[in-house]
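Course assignment 3, question 2. Fill in each field.
Student: A.L.
Task: Predict the tertiary structure for the chain below.
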Amino acid sequence: MELTYVATCLFGLEKFLGEEIDALGYKRISTIDGRVTFTGDISAIARCNIGMRFAERLYIKLGEFTADSFDSLFEGTKALPWEDYIGINDAFPVSGHSVKSKLFSIPDCQSIVKKAIVERLKSKYHISFFEENQTLYKVEFFILNDSASLMIDTSGVALHKRGYRPASNVAPLRETLAAALVKIARPRDDVLFWDPMCGSGTIAIEAALMQTNCAPGVNRHFDSEKFPQIDSSVWERAREEARDNVIRDSQFEVYASDIDMNCVELTRDNIRRAGVGGTVKAFQRNALEIKTGGRRGTVVCNPPYGERLFSMEQAEELYRNMGRAFSSLDNWQIYVLTSHEGFERLYGRRADKVRKLYNGMIKCNFYQFFKKQDDFSPKHKGNYKK
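Answer field:
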């Protein structure tokens, strides 16, 4: 049986999410900001939850219809086959979002959707009261331009929570965004990968998981494992497939360093939980003192923005010092994520490429330096004061 799914992601990661859906063998239908719709069989619930690196959640899409009034929202919701999933004693809380639509009150929409599902199930089960004390089916509505999509969440805890990071530092980077930074930086087995401001080690760990093809969700659980519609053997096969695909003889090497020893210890704990101790080495070092050691390398980092960590003045001084220190890294590639619009001026060099991304609700730029510094023209160099 073919089902329709919706995978959500952070803004800017839609391309990567679509590519991994393709790689899993499923057919994309549409892509909009923050979500990709595709089709697949029932096993896609297990394979995608376990294997998708860039998704935040995976939903089963029950239907889509025009909802420009509460009546149309009620009738459209009631017409959907909720009994195919929700049993007589199952729980079905409702949440959702509305964007650019006439129905903008989320609490009112929640109430209408809940009432419509109850009325549908009343007619199917011939009861008037639902205990809601067994399997949990989280219902999600998404209304965009007066078109409503009704879905059931299969993930439960958001997919960016891989399970290796129960604790983090003050300004943690979401795992899915860290994976995107790694993807953009194009890691290679013969090139050292280094995050010299590792914090809790997220970028380094995601690099190791990606380059050794370790599925990010293979060691965690999902709400849909309790759905009776999905046999446990489906999950067993999906996990077995994921473990069979791990690259066990990878020569990829990752360094995770930080000036703060507490961060290093936290990173070491997370490395152990993620099972990437053979790939990632964590140690204490000032990021401004890293050396090439004659090796080829790529630096990917998420320095303080002057918002949650550091004052703005401290962050700006760090960026100036980074520009001077990293200029000694020969032809290493440097990738820096920050929300500071003046980063290039402070760093003293124009990026070869800049990509807009979102760190939570913070709009950031991912500055990419992959050409030799000597290749820059005097015109470019003259644009900034050091």
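Instructor remarks: The radius of gyration is 24 Å. The longest strand covers residues 57-66.
Grade: pending
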